[in-house]
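User: tokens in, sequence out, please.
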């Protein structure tokens, strides 16, 4: 591979390397779409699997200096993603890395005719630092962490956590993590299969990330101050750059299901919105308990649920609640959460969903399923106090009705709403001109393009 500052007549090149699973590529793509306008003299190459790129191309910003490049994902051509075995596809993908990305970067260099001046990657791709080092001259590596800062802290301190298993259930010995318990950690950190593909990937990432020129984190100053202070000390430079849904908003998609119009007919703050993301749902028994709890509460609800899962709902549920709620296959989630009719969000606590819930100042009922969602749920319910978590590990009808009552009908629920709105006010301040996230975006452009910020329209 070739590196340098380019020569006259050539366009300098920034390689953007995506982890093609879950919400990862969409978040990195949103950031990548923001950068070309700020550095119009630089060619940005979005290197990703063909399957993932095909999805993103439908919402591409069409920036003339942002191009897609496909790489091998290691999966057989006729394979399909199995939600029950996500690690199989990730394992296939990791087997062909980093060679596939090296080839994609070389193809981009040939296409642009310029030299690679920096590498941006999803933090999961810990080897991106090695690819940058292979270029022969100092080239910045910037890693994007699109989860919350607390979950990143866990991966940075994995070895210490493994040494303390059974000593203390509270993680107060880590900066800013008081109140988080060992049981809130993702599998593969201190429990479960520590040698799984994903566990090894995240452990290696935690070891390698301090080498990065500047980790970028999808958060904002004021949300987890003690954790960010630790990051500023641990990394060469740390750039809190969020919420990215505010700083780099994705293109608006039309409301193809009519749910926004349905919300327009309802009173302010009375609707329960339920959404578990695109890649996981609660177990069938808990899904049925949730449905029964919604029905028993008598509260209007909007539920985003793929049609293939409708058969898991209790018999007759859709017919009985037709006048009360709306079950639909898709929603424009951010616009739903910003709608004044929505009063509570029943969520899996994925980080993007947490930030989007804050965008409307909407308290949450936490139903974490996997990964970092349990840490996020603990912060929501016990640290920021902007939502409630179930006392039992499994969701029940009675706990659902109780949680909805607390958030929608009690003084404590009103305080949750006020706290959520206060946090969102802080977030809005940080993305305004002169705010920390806005200034960190300027710094990012300077790092990756070796140039002065160019204001975009």
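Assistant: Sequence out:
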């Amino acid at each position: 591979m070739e590196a340098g500052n380019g020569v006259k007549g050539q366009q300098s090149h920034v390689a953007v390397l995506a982890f093609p699973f879950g919400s990862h590529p969409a978040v990195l793509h949103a950031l990548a779409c923001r950068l070309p306008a700020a550095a119009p003299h630089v060619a940005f190459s979005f290197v990703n699997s063909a399957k993932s790129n095909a999805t993103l191309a439908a919402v591409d910003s069409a920036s003339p200096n942002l191009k897609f490049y496909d790489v091998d994902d290691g999966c057989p051509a006729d394979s399909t993603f199995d939600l029950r075995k996500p690690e199989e596809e990730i394992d296939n993908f990791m087997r062909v890395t980093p060679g596939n990305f090296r080839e994609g970067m070389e193809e981009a260099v040939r296409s642009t005719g310029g030299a690679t001046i920096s590498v941006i990657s999803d933090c999961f791709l810990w080897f991106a630092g090695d690819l940058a080092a292979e270029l022969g001259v100092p080239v910045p590596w910037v890693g994007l962490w699109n989860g919350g800062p607390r979950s990143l802290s866990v991966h940075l301190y994995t070895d210490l956590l493994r040494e303390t298993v059974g000593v203390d259930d509270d993680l107060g010995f880590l900066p800013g993590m008081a109140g988080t318990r060992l049981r809130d950690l993702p599998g593969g950190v201190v429990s479960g299969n520590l040698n799984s593909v994903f566990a090894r990937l995240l452990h290696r990432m935690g070891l390698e990330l301090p080498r990065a020129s500047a980790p970028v984190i999808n958060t904002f100053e004021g949300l987890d101050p003690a954790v960010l202070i630790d990051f500023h000390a641990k990394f060469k430079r740390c750039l809190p750059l969020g919420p990215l849904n505010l700083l780099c908003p994705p293109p608006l998609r039309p409301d193809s299901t009519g749910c926004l119009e349905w919300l327009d007919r309802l009173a302010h703050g009375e609707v329960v919105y339920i959404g578990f993301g695109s890649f996981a749902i609660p177990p069938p028994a808990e899904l049925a308990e949730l449905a029964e709890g919604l029905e028993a509460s008598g509260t209007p609800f909007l539920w985003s649920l793929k049609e293939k899962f409708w058969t898991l709902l209790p018999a007759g549920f859709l017919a009985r609640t037709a006048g009360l709620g709306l079950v639909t296959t898709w929603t424009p989630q951010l616009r739903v959460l910003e709608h004044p009719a929505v009063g509570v969000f029943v969520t899996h606590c994925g980080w993007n969903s947490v930030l989007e819930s804050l965008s409307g100042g909407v308290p949450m009922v936490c139903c974490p399923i996997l990964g970092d969602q349990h840490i996020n749920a603990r912060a929501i319910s016990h640290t920021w106090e902007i939502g409630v978590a179930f006392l039992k590990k499994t969701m029940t009808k009675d706990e659902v009705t109780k949680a909805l009552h607390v958030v929608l009908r009690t003084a404590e629920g009103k305080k949750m709403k006020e706290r959520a709105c206060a946090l969102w006010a802080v977030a809005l301040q940080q993305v305004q001109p002169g705010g920390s996230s806005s200034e960190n975006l300027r710094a990012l452009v300077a790092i990756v393009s070796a140039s002065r910020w160019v204001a975009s329209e």
